[in-house]
Design a protein that fits this description.
about 300 residues, mainly alpha, Tetracycline Repressor, domain 2, Four Helix Bundle (Hemerythrin (Met), subunit A), 2 domains, about 0% strand
Amino acid sequence: MLSRKNKLLLLKFLSLFSVVRGYNILMITLAQYLASIYILAPHLPLRKVVFDGNLFVIVLSSALVIAAGYIINNFYDAEKDLINKPRKSMLDRLVSQRTKLTTYFVLNFLSVFFASYVSFKAVVFFSAYIFGIWFYSHKLKRVRFLGNFVSSTLAIAPFFAVFVYYKNFDTVIFVHALFLFLLILAREMIKDLENMAGDMAQNYKTIPILYGAKFSKICISILIGLTLVPSFLLIEYFDVGYMYLYFIFSIFLLLGFLILLVVSNSKKHYVWLHNILKLIIILGVFSILLINVDLVLNRIF
């Protein structure tokens, strides 16, 4: 049996894990490694990629900055989240704002410190990344259109860091990036619909608040339509191995998403739509393995 003190410590740890969204960071870390192995550096031996010290530091620094980003975002959204996410907000409040801010600065310092092991350019990149996340949370988040665009750009920045490290400029990488960017941007706009109550209470100038849910749905529909373009290109014109099955499946999910979007009119519906896009993104991470099934099978057997 855990003592009262140990139970409180465990709850605080879970609270901090909730704030930094550890499950998301683990998924991004996995995605960075899989993208490096199968997309960015497929010509290199698996061992050379997995045990590359510089790549490890880039991924580690990315994880630390993202964790810090979630903390500062949580700090600025504390009041809004009480309305939009009351249960999660109560768990998050087990850790004091002072502790969160201290952790935020420590994580950012460590990310830049580790990045210095790679190069000065890496230090500049992660310093700019830290500033970009803070500026978004502090100012840009409240700006219509621009806030959604910047948020989506920041979400794919960790992959840009790995992309620059391997200096792979193949067209297929940009098409993959476009597919992911459009999905994330659509998800950000769905979140605005989902969080209208809290955003309105905190005077956030989001698209659905200023122009209405109908206009927001039209914008999301256009983004989903645009997402179908890179999906089709990756299926028809690029060698993505068996990953083409994922893109076919994604197209059907996105078409179903559009149908549900038309009839949606409540927060519950928007949460479902958000989860569909999240599912497509998560499946996309694991489907990277399908690019070279032989490599996977050889490593297993």
